[in-house]
Amino acid sequence: MIDILHLHPTRPVIVIGAAFGDLMLEVDQLPTSGADIKANEMGQHIGGCAFNVARALSRLSIPVINGILIGNGKWGQAIKQEMEKEHLSPLIFHPARDNGWCIALVEKTKERTFITVNGCEQEWSPELLAKIPTPDNAIIYVSGYELVGTHAQPLQQWLLSQTGDKTLYLDLGPRINELSSEFLIQLIEKQPILTLNRDELAMLMNRIDQQEGDNVVAAHFFANQHSCQLICRFDCEGATVCEPDNIPMTESAFQVEVADTIAAGDSHCAGVIAGLASGLSLVESTRLGNMVAAIVVSKVGSNGAPTRDELAIFAQNQ
């Protein structure tokens, strides 16, 4: 049993990536080209992978070094206000562009589809990155969305320059196939923790080791071959941890009524990082991630991350 109320972070946590506006619409199903459909408005939130992770960590009383770009327009202003509300100290500001925004279409099946307008969160520079403190033994979270595009190279080089005492926690997402082979190999040589859903896992296995077949067998081979740690997320089937020289360990999902799956992966990342920062093993931390994700998917939108007290109550009821 994890003593959630007495988790004490001993490692710094840095969160790098995006915050932007989420406009949520509920639809029966996605429209075909040229169709005219009706939708129900589900609200407007501040989201983005990194912001979702940072917000969830802050609510769990895990201090965050905030490496999220804030733009110079209306979305940037809204994001700054939301950060301050969540006790996240604004740190880096883009001088010329506003943050991006997206429309999230949520179908009756609870599956979600995003249409995104990019903003300053895609425009990194050495000067902006130099403003982010990098204390010894830090855990550094980065989303794959910020590692692709014409302005991604400064962030790529910043990641590769981090010293070996740091732990890179990477949620590469569906952008795996857009990363250059050279950069992807260099990144894996840093021996990061990789978190992937079943589709992303298949993409990575195919690109690096040309492994096909059973996902867990391929992931276990990958972990041993590259001295990496993998968290393979299989939705309602739970998450499997693959570590070098250890047998794969599966942590079951917690059963809840799903409202939608927005921020499910991000909240899982936050739970895992909270555990790692507090000295838990990767398997224990993954169980914590499963709990946080279960609470988030039981609520509408990206803003459902629990406080530490709420998480403790959830755990007691399982």
Structural overview:
The protein has 318 residues and is α/β, with parallel strands linked by helices. 33% of the residues lie in helices and 21% in strands. It has a domain of 219 residues: Ribokinase (UDP-N-acetylmuramoyl-L-alanine:D-glutamate ligase, 3-Layer(aba) Sandwich). It contains 10 helices and 13 strands. It has a 9-stranded mixed β-sheet, with helices on both faces. A 4-stranded mixed β-sheet has the order 3-2-6-7. Strand 9, helix 5 and strand 10 form a beta-alpha-beta unit. The longest helix is centred in the last third of the chain and has 16 residues. It is globular and about 50 Å long. The termini are close together.
Q: Keywords, please?
A:
318 residues, alpha/beta, UDP-N-acetylmuramoyl-L-alanine:D-glutamate ligase, 9-stranded mixed beta sheet, 4-stranded mixed beta sheet, 33% helix, Ribokinase-like, kinase activity, Carboh/pur_kinase_PfkB_CS, kinase
What's the arrangement of secondary structure elements?
Layout: E1 13-17, E2 20-26, E3 40-47, H1 49-59, E4 65-70, H2 74-85, E5 92-93, E6 101-106, E7 112-117, H3 126-129, E8 139-143, H4 153-160, E9 167-171, H5 181-188, E10 193-197, H6 198-208, H7 215-226, E11 229-233, E12 239-242, E13 249-251, H8 264-277, H9 282-297, H10 308-316
